Amino acid sequence: MYSDDELYDCTYNHIDENYRKQRLKLFPIDIWVFIILSPFTFFGTSKIVYQFLKDTKLFGIPGDSVFVITITNWILSIVQFSTAIYVVINEEAPLMNAFCKITGLATSIVFVISNLNIFVYAAYPLALVYNALQSTARLLRIFNYSLVIIIILIVIIENDIVTPTLNGICAISATNNETMDFIISISYLLIFLLFGSMSVIYVITLKKLIPKESTMRKARGQFLRYYQRFIGFSLLMKFLLGIFSAINLLNCYKFHQSWLEVSETLQNIIQALCILGQTIIIFNDSSLKLTINSSQISDNTKEISLQQFNVLEQLHKEMKKTQITSMLAGVQILRRIKQEDVIQYKDLIINEDQDGSGSNSSQGDLSELMDTFSQPFTIEEIEECLVTNINNEILKEKLNINIEIQVFSMRCILYAPKIFNYFITLDNIDIEDCFDIIKNSSIIDQFNGPDGGKSGEFFFFSYNNQLIIKTMRQSEVNTYKKRLYNFATYQFNNHQSLINKIYGIYTFERQEKSNSRVHFQIMKNISLGIPRNQILRTYDMKGSEYNREVLANKPSSDLSKMTLKDLDFFKIETQIWIEESISKKLNQSLINDSKFLERQQLIDYSLLIMIIDWNQKETQLQKYLDGQQINIIPSIKEKGIYYHIAIMDYLQQWNVNKSLERKTKKIITMNMQLDTSAQEPNIYGKRFQDKLINRIVPLK
């Protein structure tokens, strides 16, 4: 045996050959554990990797994490087995040689990447709840690639950083500085505690926020069973690894006890059991069907299996479907509440700082309206709202629906019902029919939450494509509520306004999720439900030239399937070809609308123009034309072709963020004269009038 000074001068720069041989004679069991267990892990992970490569639909969420964890375990099994063989052949632990550097680099990459992916896998339930699955998956891939590159660069730059560790496995080792060793160990402990505590929170969160009813019950249970088994086992193994790693370090610097050397062997055994156990859990996941001969599975069964594996995506879709059903049910129930049930929304006062406007008025500047327009509404009517609760029992009672339909338990709020009801009646809109749950059932089943552009909001089109539900950000709700009196009064006095009407602003509050609100608006679909194949071209224009061309990158694309922009319009259409008398009205109405939005300090609104072929359904179109000729205008160049026109997305307020956005784009492009979309309201309005309205609807 060696003296304490000889035996425990154990920082990696001082572990000599005799110490390594002595350690292996004392505790050889971990070497044989590697030799016995590693092949099982290797063949199990190889089978899983093969299944992923064979059925690529397994990738996604959470398949990416499972695949990466499997790959890291596959690599680690090779490292463990080759290290054990090295020891058997050479009768000593790896030296500072090429073998040590190669296996050490692999071990270090595996350690970081595996733990990161296990942690992110644990975070998926929270990402599901907060509608961030896709962004989480993208970030994970970025981190994986980045960390691999960083580790390789560290090894290249710091030539001697890969060395044998205290437990005989080569890796990026701690320094021979006692303080740094303990800092690294404490950091590892804190990361483990975060990983463990967050994993528990995620399980509780998922159980609480994913409803137990209906089709979600099976998917929720399936994921939680597999999730809890995998995360629970990984937590236990990581906890034990942390304990033995700490004992090794403390024994090296503080305790100097020979009997504690067993922790080095136990650390290796636990690591081997950890990767084997994770492989077995993944291998036995029923959705992978690894234990069944693939030739015995029908194509339909395999397809179902692949869909079940991405169970978080399934849950995500189910939650969106339930959310949409809840919205439709809430809209219908609120429409049936008697007007005398309105209340003041004292608990829903606007937070003036939420949208960064800095305005001190809860209703905006009203002075411009007082002298010019008649006042059909009162401030009290603006401050009213309808409030009701919905759940599955209320749904069946109020709507007489007998089929199995599930909704969230929610508090539903409709703002200013008298105001919105006036415009609904004026435009002869049947909201209850458009959002009838039964009539929309097939649309709901197919609903995946289509993206609403950069904002990340989503649209839902009613079964007849007459109306749209669009979710809103809190800042947009604040912006509109502060100006609701202005908008209502302006649109009352300007029946030919092209500002697309909002027929209701709603807020839904989930009862299971405190302080969680979903805001949405109901607005008209300006295509009027025409089939998609009759919409020839769609343009979204802002009057800007910066980044406002689509066809430059897609010159041969089908124009009917794209949303084109300003420069595309001027290349293809040049202008709107309509009768001169209508052209003057349209030009003046658009300019009036732009000036109104400018006075409201709003920017970034768009002029949406759809060019639609009504040749086959012109008789159907006639019912829409009475009093709305300014919105739906026949072309004088092509018979049966109509322009559908509206100003959309007008709830963006000029604030500090928009000012920074404009300056940033100018700096990035190194062009201080850049005509960005984000401009002050007066500049945006003038550009909208001069470079857009007067160009597409020129006055002779």
Automatic annotation (TrEMBL):
What Gene Ontology molecular function terms does this protein carry? 1-phosphatidylinositol-4-phosphate 5-kinase activity; ATP binding
UniProt keyword Membrane present: yes
**GO-annotated biological processes:** phosphatidylinositol phosphate biosynthetic process
Location of the PIPK domain: 346-696
Sequence intervals crossing the membrane:
31-53, 65-89, 109-130, 142-162, 182-205, 226-247
Which CDD domains does the UniProt record give? Answer: PIPKc
Instruction: Specify whether Signal is a keyword of the entry.
Output: no
Q: May I have one GO cellular component term?
A: plasma membrane
Alphabetical UniProt keywords = ATP-binding, Kinase, Membrane, Nucleotide-binding, Transferase, Transmembrane, Transmembrane helix
Which PANTHER family does the record cross-reference, listed alphabetically? PHOSPHATIDYLINOSITOL 5-PHOSPHATE 4-KINASE, ISOFORM A, PHOSPHATIDYLINOSITOL-4-PHOSPHATE 5-KINASE
Q: What is this protein called?
A: PIPK domain-containing protein
Origin species, per record, is Paramecium pentaurelia
* Phylogenetic lineage: Eukaryota, Sar, Alveolata, Ciliophora, Intramacronucleata
